[in-house]
Amino acid sequence: MDKKNAVPTVDLLFEVSWEVCNKIGGIYTVLSTKAKTLQKLNKDKSIFIGPDVWSAENPSPWFKECNVNGLSECISKAELPEGIGVRIGRWDIPGNPIAVLVKFDGMYAVKNDFYGEMWNRFGVDSLHAYGDYDEGCAFAHASGILIESIVKSGFGQPLTPTGRISKRHRTGIVAHFDEWTTGMGLLYVKWKLPQVATVFTTHATSIGRSICGNNKPLYDYLEGYNGDQMARELNMEAKHSLEKAAAHAADAFTTVSEITAKECEQLLERRPDVVTPNGFEKNFVPSSAKMPKVRKEAREKMLTVASALTGRHFDDNSFIVITSGRCEYRNKGLDLFLDTCDELRHCEICRDIVAFVMVPAWPKEARIDLKSRMDVMGGKPFTSNEAALDYPVITHWLNNPDNDAVNQRINHLGFTKSEKRVHVIYVPCYLNGSDGIFNIGYYDLLPGADASIFPSYYEPWGYTPLESVAFGVPTVTTSLSGFGQWILTDFDNYFDECGVNVIGRGDSNYRNVVENIAHSIEYLNRASEKEIKRIRKAAMDTASKADWSNFICHYETAYGIAIQKAFERLK
């Protein structure tokens, strides 16, 4: 009788990322929200590995060092190379998954030999490396060595009755690596541990982001671009070479949206096996009973800041619109947002518009004159018009005002002058609760908005519009974002149906996009209270469909593909 192979299951999952217990950008949100669902499916079978870039004076606020049964003993017995330090504990997020922080200083001493090995085995060209390349590779190398020591110890792997590791289940170990910064770790595991299934996820290709960041058209000419050639032209050879090698070596290759899958296929020359859209956990969204109070407090805070800056009286009926995210002027569509505000000056609006650009730049300090005026106002907007502060469009002074693209565009469009209906305010700092002006977090302010605009040019997924609809805030985004593509695929593209309006964007229709977004905001500005209530509910319903419980199946598919390939490799 023929023996049938066991159905692939994940006995142990490693996930390596620079953003484990290290909040930098959107990948932190991906991993930290996904962790809760992974814990529900396979309690403590996931080990998140991140960089130990912290100190006693500056500890990670998201990492709690503690003993983890079995793993702590396993690592304490491991003979790790000098210069690799390990701390074991829990990631302080919903689900409290196991987290291991790796100190990787010792890897710099052996980097040349290691780079030579990676060139010989995988063709990774590190010759032209610069910037953060060495740091990312040192962390990834150390993470690969750590995974090797854990796997060889037998931790988390099914045993036979005699106490040996079951060969039948040996392929149930998955090592998942996120972004080029962890690519060297994947290649190390591929070299040293053929029994381990490898998964590589690119959330955005390094060369695609670079093409856009250099103001080159990506979409109209995508089929004509060669990734290797563009890497040479844009001085991105090392990162692109590593990312491409990891994508090709991985047992399963994934990315977060169909629009980025096409980019990978062209620039990395491998079509992702699975598209793994980014899910969401609504654990920090206020309940429906608490939302009115939260919304009222957020609006009062934003309108008070706007009133103090401009000297104007803003009643509660004022229309607040925001954009937020990483400060990438073109990629995130900040140029388009500001031009839309300019277009709204000519639209038929019935409520004053206050538009906030909430993107961290290079802030110097919170404005003392603004803080003083807000103290005098007692946290309430002016009841009548007063004199504006000098330069009434920014909450924090900048270190580089003459070179800040957002600041320059606000000046060019004349928003520093007295306005009647549309007011733009630049918030160039992290809204973490201690910025000196708002002193509450971004998620505490978001519910106060009447609309959000995220007109991205380059956006593989887009958490900001997803977060917006989760708080019931209608949002406008573009067809060049992964989130926008998901909306177009799964919903009718109307505010009433999903709380979102996706505007078609390409390389050649900038002005048309500006006008269409302005018309969308004009519609919301003039909508009745009954219509807005219906749109807000539709937005929250949309966010519910992006819950990780609905999206985790895509990762399970990727893990299954990887495990099957590892199994075949061991036959």
- The spatial strand order of the largest sheet comes to 3-4-5-2-1-6-7-8-9
User: How much is the average pLDDT?
Assistant: 93
Helical content (DSSP H or I, runs of 4+): 40-55%
Distance, first to last CA: 18 Å
Q: Identify low-pLDDT runs.
A: 1-7, 160-165
Per DSSP E runs of 2 or more residues, the count of β-strands stands at 17
- Could you describe the largest sheet, including whether it forms a barrel? 9 strands, mixed
Beta-strand content: 5-15%
Oligomeric state of the chains present here? single chain
Secondary-structure class: alpha/beta
Quick synopsis:
This protein has helices at 26-41, 71-77, 111-122, 133-153, 183-192, 206-213, 227-233, 237-249, 258-267, 291-310, 334-344, 368-377, 405-412, 442-445, 463-470, 482-490, 495-498, 510-526, 529-544, 548-569; strands spanning 12-16, 46-51, 63-65, 85-91, 98-103, 173-178, 197-202, 252-255, 274-275, 319-324, 353-358, 363-366, 396-398, 422-427, 451-454, 475-478, 500-503.
